[in-house]
Amino acid sequence: MTTVLIADDQPMQRFGFRMLLESQDDMTVVGEAANGHEALQLIARHQPDVALMDIRMPLLDGIEATRRVIRAGSPTRVLIVTTFDLDRYAYDGLRAGASGFLIKDALPEELLSGIRAVALGDAVVAPSLTRRLLDAYVQHLPAAPGEPATQDPRIAGLTGRELEILTVIGQGWTNSEISERLHLAESTVKTHVSRILAKTGARDRVQAVILAYDTHLVAPG
Predict the structure, then answer these.
(1) For residue 65, how far is the Cα from the chain centroid?
(2) pLDDT the model gives residue 7
């Protein structure tokens, strides 16, 4: 059973989410929050698997609430929901530690599959969309340092093959594409991805993409 917290300042939006989630045999809603402060209190109390987090909320917005959830070391994974797929706040949400985001007009099955994916430790944002969003996001990063990216302590422990795979993850390749193009078994690719996440401390694939940009393994465009 996947436990979900709904954080949104619109009562009708929360009602719609609750009705959809509780129609599923494998999901249950453990609470609703109308602002970021309430969300943090309920997450601390219930430790849900997934927090469905709106961005624009009073008192404390979803970005800062997400940042505090991650900083506290909570096992709860945050799925950001936003009105526009290119909303600039979504980039900040990913940087704050969210495991992905969806737009509010997503189809019900997309929301449900997204929640299930996040609960399992995967990312919701599709690789092609991840690349488009990160291309815009990366414009706000500081200029690349003069030293090689491999000297960044976050990726210094990766092997050559792991650096290669992290780079193509940042370019939006799926596991099946990595398997086909690098001539590796898909199970081997999954093992490499798991090791990359463990070594770098990235929570999921979205955070790995951000790391690839942050360390300048991948450039926009």
Answers:
(1) 14
(2) 97
